[in-house]
Amino acid sequence: MRTVRIGNGCGFWGDQPKAPYYLVRDGQLDYLTLEYLAELTMSILAVQRHKDPARGYATDVLEVLESLVPLWVQQPQLKIVTNAGGLDPQGCAQKIRHLLHEHGLAERRIAVVSGDDLMPQLDALLAAKCSLAHLDTHEPLEKVRSQVVCANAYLGAGPIVEALRQGADLVVTGRVADASLTVAPAVYELGWQWTDWHLLAAATVAGHLIECGAQVTGGLWCNWREAPDLANVGYPFADIAADGTVVIGKPAGSGGRVCFETVSEQLLYEVDDPSHYLTPDVIADFTSVRLQEVAQDVVQLTGARGFPATDSYKVSIAYRAGWTASGTVTVFGADAVDKARACADIVRHRLARAGCRFDVFHAELLGAGAVVPGVVSVPVAPAEVVLRLTVQSTDRASVERFSRELAPLVTSGPPGVTGYVGGRPPVRELFVYWPALIPKHLVQPRVVLLS
After folding, report:
1. In this structure, are strands 3-8 and 237-241 parallel, antiparallel, or unpaired?
2. What beta strand segments (E) does 133-204 contain?
């Protein structure tokens, strides 16, 4: 039976830079995916692009691809699909082409998938009564339109499949749904149709399982002590068969673990309704999936069921909402918790006396149960805590004043205040996420094969 092996060497922008190299070297892949984007990442790219219009993409991809050059020479059949293009897939692809030309791989064909960026047509969409209302609050986007910095639809697998049909060896996309990076090679290689809902659901399950990299191979596992050698954790691959059977594994000899628990945990990661996992390609029913450990570090999945996709794309929007800063001090000794709370009150009162105004003034006592409030109890009062203060405001001057109030605690607060290093907390622009939907017929994906 025809099977395609797809490995994912990157779960987010900032993941291990050498992971793709080891996965390609030892994984015997047909396809490598590199998944860089998240809602936060799009905001970061918007800031980066604002400072330099030529840097609207995940720049780490260049380092990763350069490391892969010797392996790609040895494995010419390997194809790569990545959403590293971010807000500038064309610019990213041009940089990649230059890199490949420098290293003697000019024959590798690069395709660009775009059309997800809605900023050029945002005002026209709003004028045409496409409200892009907030999914939770139902407020229309007009409320924050002047502050919007990026708006991108989550495209599906379709344009990637078209790029592969045009002969691409490497596909660079903008905002594409994470699982779709895996769905596309499966559809292309296995000859599936866009109405093969159960098969599309199976590929979506595979894509969802490997999209976060090492999380399915032992990272973030509740029984992490049973995942040997996490320092050398292997990144995952999915073997997808023509009948929709999926096998999750990792390169032989690599660290970590693939088992029922690691796979089932990742299957439910960031999932609202597991019976209706919505993607641009299909609605997947994760509750129908059956898992079976068929060998050491090998888990087989069968029985995925799917339903027709919705007629809308999800849209990731980010808008400017003021300024923020966050800083920490360590408080040590007897009554550390009480002293840390007193420090927070001191800063709050000093800022109020200075006339500062904040939308958010947040104090966390790390080490005293603040990371997951109400979930983990601390039976013994800790002898040290880290006080983290965070503020948000539309008034930049207030945030700048806050950044000057932590250091004085060392000499004008309770005893035991220490650990103030690195200078004043930097003042950063605050971006807020705005989720929305858009009818699919209003979005036109484009595929261009670089000449």
Report:
1. antiparallel
2. 148-153, 170-173
Please tell me the pTM assigned to this model.
0.95
Say if CB 245 and CB 202 are below 8 A apart.
yes
Tokens of 33: 């995916």
314, 389 contact by CB (below 8 A): no
Confidence (pLDDT) at 50? 82
> Taking the CB of residue 407, how many other CB atoms lie within 10 A of it?
16
Two tokens, residue 217:
């191979």
Q: Which residue has the tokens 């409030």?
A: 373
Tokens in use for 262?
A: 């690691």
In angstroms, the Cα distances linking 303 to 205, 287, 291 are 11, 9, 9
Alpha-carbon distances of 70 from 67, 73, 370, rounded to whole Å: 7, 5, 47
User: By three-state DSSP, how is residue 400 classified?
Assistant: helix
Beta bridge partners of 291: 301
Please answer whether residues 155 and 116 qualify as being in contact, where contact means their C-beta atoms are separated by less than 8 angstroms.
yes
List the structure tokens of 374: 């109400």
148-195 pLDDT, tens per residue? 999 999 999 999 999 999 999 999 999 999 999 999 999 999 999 999
C-alpha angle 313-443-7 in degrees, rounded to nearest 5: 60
Token readout for 239 is 């073997």
Is there a contact between 184 and 113 (Cβ–Cβ < 8 Å)? no
